[in-house]
């Protein structure tokens, strides 16, 4: 009887550990190497249709934009963020540490640059 109870507890503990693993984290083996991977959401920030803000308005938007990223970083929602300065429509990149494109979209919709339509976002898993 004790063996049965011990086996049941071990099985439940093993199941509990498996159930808590993130579906975003996975491993695969190639030969004698094991690769541990995690999926993220890539966000490309591009020039938006409304880029005619005056310098004072733009400064406020930029301040809010940077505050937005600091808040996301403090909450552990982004792995990386930064500008792209190559003279193209591509203005920045964000790597969201979230479970879905929908979650990343909801978070980035709060960015003042997105709200003001100075930038648009393109999301990929």
Q: Rough shape?
A: elongated
CATH class of the largest domain, named Alpha Beta
Q: Radius of gyration, Cα only, in angstroms? A: 21 Å
Any idea of the CATH topology of the largest domain? Alpha-Beta Plaits
Q: Could you give a short account of the major beta sheet?
A: 4 strands, antiparallel
Mean pLDDT equals 85
Q: What is the tally of beta strands?
A: 6
**How helical, in percent, are the residues?**
40-55%
Give the CATH superfamily of the largest domain.
Dimeric alpha+beta barrel
Straight-line N-to-C gap: 49 Å
The helix/strand class is alpha+beta
Description:
With 125 residues, the chain is α+β, with helices and mostly antiparallel strands. 41% of the residues lie in helices and 30% in strands. The chain is built from four helices and six strands, in the order αβββαββααβ. It has helices spanning 2-20, 55-74, 101-108, 112-115; strands spanning 25-30, 33-38, 41-47, 78-83, 90-96, 119-124. The protein is elongated. Mean pLDDT is 85; it is low at 1-21.
């Amino acid at each position: 009887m004790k063996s049965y109870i011990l086996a049941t507890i071990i099985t439940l503990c093993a199941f509990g550990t498996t159930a808590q693993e993130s579906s975003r984290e996975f491993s695969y083996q190639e030969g004698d190497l094991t690769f541990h991977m995690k999926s993220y959401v890539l966000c490309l920030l591009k020039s938006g249709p409304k880029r005619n803000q005056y310098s004072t308005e733009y400064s406020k938007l930029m301040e809010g934009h940077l505050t937005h990223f600091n808040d996301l970083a403090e909450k552990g929602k982004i792995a990386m963020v930064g500008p792209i300065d190559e003279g193209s429509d591509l203005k920045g990149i964000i790597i969201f540490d979230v479970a879905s494109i929908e979650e990343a979209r909801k978070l980035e919709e709060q960015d003042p640059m997105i709200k003001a339509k100075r930038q648009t976002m393109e999301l990929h898993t």
